[in-house]
Amino acid sequence: MTFGESEVALDARANVNYHEETTTGNLITDGARAYAEADVGITNAGGIRSNTVYPAGPVTRGEINSILAFGNALVKVRVTGAELRDVLTSQLAPIGSSPAEQYGPEIQQQVSGVRFEWYPHTDAADPQVGDGEVREIYVGGEPLNDSANYTVAVNSYIADGGSGYPLADEPRVGSYNVTMAEAVLAYIEQRGMLTEAELDPAVQSRMRRVNRDVETVSVDRENDTVTVVVEAPSQLASYSQSFVLRDWSGDEPHPEVATAERVRSLDGTSRLAVEFDASAYDRVVDADDENVDLYGSYNDTEYADEFEYFESAVLNAEVAGSADDGNGTDGAPVVVGRPARDPDGDGRYEDVNGDGALTLSDPTALFVNRERPAVTGNASAFDFADDGGVGVGVGDVTALFDELSG
After folding, report:
1. Of 80, 304, 334, 377, which one's alpha carbon is 20 to 30 angstroms from that of 182?
2. Confidence (pLDDT) at 104
3. How far is CA 340 from the centre of its chain?
4. Residues with Cβ < 8 Å from 169, sequence gap 6 or more?
5. H/E run at residue 54
6. Is 30 in contact with 114 (CB distance < 8 Å)?
7. Are residues 268 and 385 in the same domain?
8. What CATH number did the domain enclosing 254 receive?
C-alpha cells in the first residue's frame, strides 16, 4: 500500500547510516518527532534495516516496515540541554573494522530538530572540544541551552539505554501505542510528498563532519562579489570548488545556504579566496549574525586513507557579520572575519581583529591586511599615526604597536 511519495531515493544501507546523515534517517526522525510533537527526534543507526536503497517515487508500507523491522514503540523523553549534548556525543564511536579505526569516530545515529558539528580527530577540534565530542549544537534554529529542558522522540530500545544511549534514567513524558514504523507512515501520509529540501543531507546538513578549523583572514566586497579569504590547512593537497556558507541559526526546515561561485588559491595554497555572489552572501550573512560557518571540501595529506569512507576532508571557518554589539562595531570594517572594534569611541578601531582584546595581534593584523579593501577603504578608522587618514601604512601599524605595547 502506497502512503505517499518521495522526491529522493531513501538510503537504508547500513554502512552509510552508521557514519553520515541520510535521507532515510531524516525521514524516520522527522516522522517520530512530528508524531510525538517533540523538540528533537533521534534514532540509532542499528535500528535502520533492509540495507537497501529505495528509488524516488511511491513509498509503501512494506518498505517502511522493512526499514523499521524491530517493532519498537515510540517514546518521548525529557532531557536538559547538557544531557542532550551527552546523548549526541554518546554515538560518536570508532569505525568498527581494521584499519578503519584509525579514521577517528563516526556518527552512529540520525537526528531531527537538532544540528551540530562533530570531529573525527582530536588535533582538528576546537581547544574546548575533545576527540569524540560535538559542538555548534542548535535546536530549532537556536543555540543549545544547557539548562533548558527539551523533549526527544526515540524508539523504546534506546529509551531503555540500548546502543549506549544515556536515556534509561530520563523521565518519559510520552508513551505511544504505536511502533516507530506506524508513526513514520502516519507522517508520510500526512505529508503526501516528501521533498528533496526536507530529506537531502546536502540541504539539511544536520550532522556536519569537520576535519580542521581554519581562520578567516578577511571579508571584502567589490561590486557584486564578496570574497572570503581563509587560511588553508598546511595538510591541504588540493581543494574542490564545493564551498558553502551555512547559517546555523536559520529557522526550520533547513539552514540558509550560499554556494561559492569560485575558489582560488592565494600565495600558493597558504590561503584560499572563496567568492560569493553578493546577494547570495547577504541572504545568509546579515549584519548581526555570528552563527555562520564556511565549509569547504579538500584533500588532506594526513587523512588521505580515510576517504574509503568519506568523499573528502572538510574545513570550517567562522564568518561573522558587522553588527553593533555595544563595543563600537556598528558599520565597522570586517578585517579578519569579524568587525573591528573601537573600544574607546575615538573613531579609530584599535581592536583590528575584532576579538574583544587589545593585544599585539592587532597591529600584526593591520600590517598583514593593510592593502586589502577592508582597510584601504576605511583609512580614517586606522589613522593611528594622525597623518590625516589618506592611506594606511607602516606608520599606522607602528603607532598602534607603540600604543598597545606601551
Report:
1. 80
2. 59
3. 24
4. none
5. strand 53-54
6. no
7. no
8. 2.60.40
Half-sphere exposure of 184 (CA within 13 A, CB side): 34
Closest CA to 309 of 211, 203, 205: 211
Is residue 154 domain-shared with residue 29, that is, in the same domain?
yes
- Residues of the chain with pLDDT below 50 are 99-100, 102, 124-130, 322-327
The amino acid at residue 180 is: M
Contacts of 292 (CB under 8 A, 6+ apart): 245, 246, 247, 248, 284, 285, 318, 319, 320, 321
Instruction: With CA atoms as reference, report the closest residue to 131 among 235, 210, 237.
Output: 210
C-alpha pair distances (Å), 121 with each of 106, 131, 182, 212, 343: 10, 6, 39, 8, 37
**d(Cα 260, Cα 280) in Å, to the nearest integer?**
9
Say which residues have a Cβ less than 8 Å from residue 403's Cβ, sequence separation at least 6: 350, 384
8 A C-beta contact, residue 271 and residue 227: no
C-alpha cell at position 100: 578503519
> With contact defined as beta carbons under 8 Å apart, do 113 and 140 qualify?
yes
Cα 396 to Cα 32: distance, rounded to the nearest angstrom: 60
Collapsing DSSP states into helix, strand and coil, what is residue 204? helix
Which pLDDT value is given to residue 308? 63
Query: What pLDDT was estimated at residue 248?
Result: 82
Specify whether the CB–CB gap between 271 and 232 falls below 8 A.
yes
Does an H or E element contain 11, and which? strand 10-11
CA atoms within 13 A on the CB side of 181: 17
Residue 384's CB: how many other CB atoms inside 10 A?
A: 24
Return left, alpha or beta for 209; rule: phi > 0 is left, psi -120 to 50 is alpha, else beta.
beta
Q: State which H helix or E strand residue 367 sits in.
A: helix 361-369
Same-domain check for residues 156 and 81: yes
Q: What is the pLDDT of residues 32-49, one digit of tens each?
A: 999 999 999 999 999 999
Q: What are phi and psi of 238, to 5 degrees?
A: -160, 170
**What CA–CA distance (Å, rounded) separates 167 from 2?**
34
> Are 246 and 292 in contact, with CB atoms under 8 Å apart?
yes
Domain match, 234 and 181 both: no
Residues sharing a CB contact under 8 Å with residue 105, sequence separation 6 or more, in sequence order: 92, 93, 94, 95, 118, 120, 131, 132
Contact of 205 with 294, CB cutoff 8 Å: no
CA 14 to chain centre: 24
Q: Would you state the cell numbers that stand for residue 78, as one nine-digit string?
A: 525529557
**Coil/strand/helix, residue 39:** coil
Burial 264-281 (b: 16+ CB within 10 A, else e): eeeeeeebbbbbbeeebb
Residue range of the domain that includes 252: 211-319
pLDDT at 93: 77
